[in-house]
Amino acid sequence: MRRQIHQMMQFNGKRVLVTGGSRGIGAAIARAFAGQGARVAINYRSGQAAAKACVGELTGKGHVTLQADVSDPGQAASLVDDAIAALGGLDIVVNNAGVFLSHPITSTKTDDWNMAWRQTIDTNLIGPAAVCHRAAQHMMRSRGGRIVNVSSRGAFRGEPDGPAYGASKAGLNAMSQSLAVALAPHNIFVGVVAPGFVETDMAAELLEGAEGDAIRAQSPLGRVARPEEVAHAVLFLASDGAEFSTGTIIDVNGASYLRS
Ligand code: NAP
């Protein structure tokens, strides 16, 4: 019983920043951490009402919302500073914010193509890099921390309609593994969760459209992931005892894509 309670509250007092936490996977991650005793800073870009609603529903006290567009490295670094100020420190960072922009090479005009690449790389890779850089400085001073980055199956399987997305997530994986090596001597551990399709706004149009059944059939479970299932893997990587899993990329894709 005592062990059960310990496991349930294993993030008691931990201070967590979740980028893009106003909805979807980020909101589920925030709920999961708060449910285990953590205090959470939920970042959003434009969805203030959703972020406030999400923070209002979290278990426990001391949670905050922080507006910042992480695609701007200056705002991404300030976001970390703001989280440290609001929470009184920072133990765990989850780079979850991301965008998917459709830009198939066969039908996208040059300007749109270039814009899609810029926006995607800025949000999904440069932003997390800036967050990691500022967070690592703080965590080195405070002698430890955890960084978990939310990637995608598309990094491995390819994204024919959104090649910048696949490239951004492959870059995020490579960056995370480099940082895992560089930061381990500082007691900072870095992991990645790579979901396949998840029931959120990002995938809603596809899942509700003509391709929905075929997408669900990609997994032998006949469905896509729930946001809580992604959160479960994020919490594992951030948990005590997962230190030796640093540099790991956890697939949460229902065996829809098995990489070697
Ligand atoms: P979502 O429902 O579209 O939510 C995206 C979240 O990111 C929102 O909170 C949004 O905030 C925030 N965001 C977007 N751009 C931002 C920026 N520049 N600065 C700060 N926040 C920003 O997405 P999701 O499905 O939960 O995806 C979360 C993560 O999982 C992403 O990294 C995504 O690539 C990854 N993923 C998703 C799927 C899937 O099928 N859904 C599959 C694999 C990986 P606002 O509401 O304020 O704009």
Low-confidence stretches: none
Could you say what the CATH topology is called? Rossmann fold
Helices, by number, come to 10
**Spatial strand arrangement across the major sheet:** 3-2-1-4-5-6-7
Beta strands, count: 7
**Helical amount:** 40-55%
Whole-number average pLDDT? 96
> Which structural class matches the secondary elements?
alpha/beta
**Straight-line distance between termini:** 39 Å
CATH homologous group name: NAD(P)-binding Rossmann-like Domain
Biggest β-sheet description: 7 strands, parallel
* H and E order: HEHEHEHEHEHHEHHHE
What's the topology here?
Elements lengths: L1 H7 L6 E4 L5 H12 L3 E6 L3 H9 L7 E4 L5 H15 L4 E4 L14 H32 L3 E6 L3 H4 L5 H21 L4 E8 L5 H8 L3 H5 L10 H12 L10 E4 L8
Parallel strand pairs: 1-2, 1-4, 2-3, 4-5, 5-6, 6-7
Helix pairs in contact: 2-10, 4-5, 5-7
The structure holds NADP nicotinamide-adenine-dinucleotide phosphate.
Task: Report on the architecture of this protein.
With 260 residues, this protein is α/β, with parallel strands linked by helices. It has 10 helices and 7 strands. It has a single domain, classed as Rossmann fold (3-Layer(aba) Sandwich), CATH 3.40.50. The chain is 48% helix and 14% strand. The protein has a 7-stranded parallel beta sheet, sandwiched between helices. α2 crosses α10, α4 runs parallel beside α5 (110-141) and α5 packs parallel to α7. The mean pLDDT is 96. The structure holds NADP nicotinamide-adenine-dinucleotide phosphate. Residues 19-20, 22-26, 43-47, 50, 69-71, 96-99, 123, 150, 152, 195, 197-198, 200-203 line the site of NADP nicotinamide-adenine-dinucleotide phosphate.
